[in-house]
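Cross-check.
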Amino acid sequence: MRKCSGIKPDGTRCGRIVGASQSFCYSHDPAAQEARRKAAAKGGKAKAARHSNKISEIAALRARLWDLAEQVRRHEVRPGVASVMSQIFGLWLKTFDYENRQVEIDLYTEKLEEVERYLSEQRRASS
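Predicted model, tokenized:
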């Protein structure tokens, strides 16, 4: 079995197995560099935008929770009502986690499809 000739950032040789006609794995193949760069840029920009939106939504939620606490303190909202509202806010906050997980799954699926396309092209080229 052939192993990738690429060198990892720590200076050691990559240990991934490659096809008989290949010298590099997807991560180290110079021919795949542009595809890797595009995938990384696309994922990074989308993640940054989502992160920024989430931060502002979380800040807004914190402000609403503070207002709710103040309304309870001033006896403008009953504690039972505030408790239910807090539970709803908590569930809303949990949806961020679920959404983040789905986004990660989608990104990994897309990257896996790119790797599969690349390997398919390499197999066709070696045939």
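The longest strand covers residues 2-3. Residues 79-126 form the longest helix (48 residues). Passed to J.P. for a second look.
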